[in-house]
Amino acid sequence: MVRIGVIDSLQVQLWGFQEGLWMGKLIMKLDVLWLMNQLSRPFQASHPLDTFVKKILLLIREDW
């Protein structure tokens, strides 16, 4: 449990919003790491997501 002291309801809402954004950012980073790991493996052309994977890999390889 995090002790945050005595604060008003607006501060509680802002704190909760901040924590939610932080958790969302962490989850997004973990999802991206997992996805990049999956994309680095051989992908079968018969897979239903083959078209998406090819497009993503092309975008990654482009010189931005």
How is this structure best described in words?
With 64 residues, the chain is mainly alpha-helical. The chain has one domain. Helix content is 67%, strand content 0%. It contains two helices and no strands. It is elongated, with a radius of gyration of 20 Å.
Major sheet: none
The Cα radius of gyration reads 20 Å
One letter per element, helices H and strands E, the order comes to: HH
Estimate the strand proportion: under 5%
Q: Tally the helices: what do you get?
A: 2
Going by helix content, strand content and strand pairing, the class is: mainly alpha
* Low-confidence region ranges: none
Anisotropy-based shape = elongated
Briefly characterize the structure.
The protein is mainly alpha-helical. It has helices at 9-39, 50-61.
Notable characteristics:
64 residues; single chain; 67% helix
Compile the SSE list and pairings.
Layout: H1 9-39, H2 50-61
